[in-house]
Amino acid sequence: MSRTEAERISDVRQVLEAARTLVRERAELAAEIARTTGLSPEGVELAMTEHLETTATDAELASLVARAGDAPRVHVILSANVFIAALRAIAIARAASRFVTVRPSRREPVFARALVGALGCTEITLAENVAPMEVTGGEIHVYGRDETIARVRAAARPGVVVRGHGAGMGIAWIGPGWPVSEAARALASDVVPFDQRGCLSPRVALVLGDEARAEAFAEALHDVLGAWETKVPRGELSREEAETAARYSETMTFAGKVFEAPGHIVALAHEGSVLAVPPPGRHVHVARVSDARSVASRIAPLSRAIVAVGASDPTEARAFAPAHARVSVLGQMQRPPLDGPVDNR
After folding, report:
1. Mean pLDDT of 218-243
2. 113 and 193 co-located in one domain
3. Domain holding 32: CATH number?
4. What residues contact residue 269 under an 8 Å CB cut-off, 6+ apart?
5. Which pLDDT score, from 0 to 100, does residue 191 have?
6. CATH number of the CATH domain containing 315
7. Are 264 and 227 in contact (CB under 8 A)?
8. Chain mean pLDDT for the chain
9. For residues 88 and 131, which has the higher predicted lDDT (pLDDT)?
10. Could you report the per-residue pLDDT of 18-43, keeping only the tens digit for each?
11. More confident residue, 291 or 266
């Protein structure tokens, strides 16, 4: 029997209540989550207390339910990139169906397992594996790399809907009239959570103005990220991330100016250069823009990957932001409302 909108919203609210339970009991989970994610203990604390969705308005939940659709069963395949993303994924699946199967990431299964356990609902179950070719009906919601989504789609049976949420990134727009020190503080608060591994994490900052303003912003961001390191140290980088960061720093030494510390890199690019996307790990590519009208063409090569835009003026940013991107005030990029998929795709 199909559920009413009110029943679906009530079911999602139970997911939020389970999340609140985990926040209260986070001391029991934090060390293991730090081990599996590579985040510092302080990074796990920041994510759990400041970025985990534990509340939502009626309007936000109505939007989430409407966008979730209706399915007899949903199988969820989770990614390890942002451990708290399991909550939104499970909430969307629960809005879509009474029956949900969750396969946690093998690299970071702790939070998802704890959330399902806190729910204590027999209709939401854990699975060690979800083999797409064995799913005979309903939907598969898969989170992760584009290659993973493609493999699931290729293996899924006819009639099984596959909803993929792949890789993405954020960009920041530093428009006129905002002091660079204030903008740097706001951007840093979006860079630090999850060590920049989420699809909402900004990795490129566009600064409107002359060279002096762009350099002042880059230097201010370098200082603020250094201050963050003392409060919330960056966690461990993978070998690939560390090697890619070293290559990025070396390249930008010739293609711009680099402000580097043990826990971050801020690189200021020469005017007119191609936008280079640094790897995750609190690394930000700063580029000067002399004319706001040129932004759309400047970011065009990255458009498909951009799922979030943080701006001093969101109205101004909507003029060039990709249609699928979330647009928010800078400093709020990592706190999207629980109104649907985080990537809006």
Report:
1. 97
2. no
3. 3.40.605.10
4. 252, 255, 256, 275, 276, 285, 286, 287, 288
5. 98
6. 3.40.309.10
7. no
8. 95
9. 88
10. 999 999 999 989 999 999 999 999 99
11. 266
Last residue of a domain, one of 165, 188, 221: 165
SS3 readout for the chain: CCCCHHHHHHHHHHHHHHHHHHHHCHHHCHHHHHHHHCCCHHHHHHHHHHHCCCCCCHHHHHHHHHHHCCCCCEEEECCCCCCCHHHHHHHHHHHHCCCEEEECCCCCCHHHHHHHHHHCCCCEEECCCCCHHHCCCCEEEEECCHHHHHHHHHHCCCCCEEEEECCCEEEEEECCCCCHHHHHHHHHHHHCHHHHCCCCCEEEEEEECCHHHHHHHHHHHHHHHHHHHHHCCCCCCCHHHHHHHHHHHHHHHHHEEEEEECCEEEEEECCCCCCCCCCCCCEEEEEEECCHHHHHHHHHHHHHHEEEEEECCHHHHCCCCCCCCEEEECCCCCCCCCCCCCCCC
335 in a structural domain: no
* Mean pLDDT of the 263-279 span: 92
pLDDT tens track for 116-130: 999 999 999 999 888
Residue 83's closest CA among 232, 230, 229, 195?
195
In a domain, 78, yes or no: yes
Residue 100: phi and psi, rounded to 5, are -135, 135
As for how many domains the chain has, the answer is 2
Q: Give me the domain span that covers residue 297.
A: 169-329
Indicate if 158 and 288 belong to the same structural domain.
Answer: no
- Please check whether residues 194 and 301 belong to one and the same domain: yes
Share of the chain above pLDDT 70, in %: 100
The reported pLDDT for the residue numbered 343 is: 87
- The pLDDT-based confidence of 1 (bands split at 50, 70, 90) is low
Q: Which residues contact 272 (CB under 8 A, 6 or more apart)?
A: none
